[in-house]
Amino acid sequence: MAQGGKFTILVKPSFLDRYWGSDFIDYAYFTRYIRDARLMYVRDLGLEWPRDRVLMVIKEENTYSSPLRVEEEMRIYVRQTKIGKTSAITEFQIDEAGSGRPIAHRREIAVWMDRKTGRPAPTPEEWKKAIITFEGESNIEVTKD
Fold it and tell me: What are phi and psi of 103, to 5 degrees?
């Protein structure tokens, strides 16, 4: 679970992100919030996206616990839980910022891909080192597969 992770961001959803005719945020927008959280996590670690690779999300698992009202603010926790030779698992927990009420949890599996060949590419060493240092060796699984 990402909650309790060291990195979080606060997000105030836009009124335009709601389901039409309701005061609840449309879950389709949560992918955008998750992307923002991932980018801020990378930025906070001082990393830059490699020009020769792209990180492709190949699987998402989402669990929605309760709706978020448009007037509520959310806290998104980000935690990388696994680094492999070419892959990574990142978890995101979204809670209502004021009460801590669970809103959603996402687990993503992503693979580094070579931009030219479209084939899996090794996890950049600087990313691996920075993430392990940030998360702590005992908090992240590192594999050679």
Answer: -105, -50
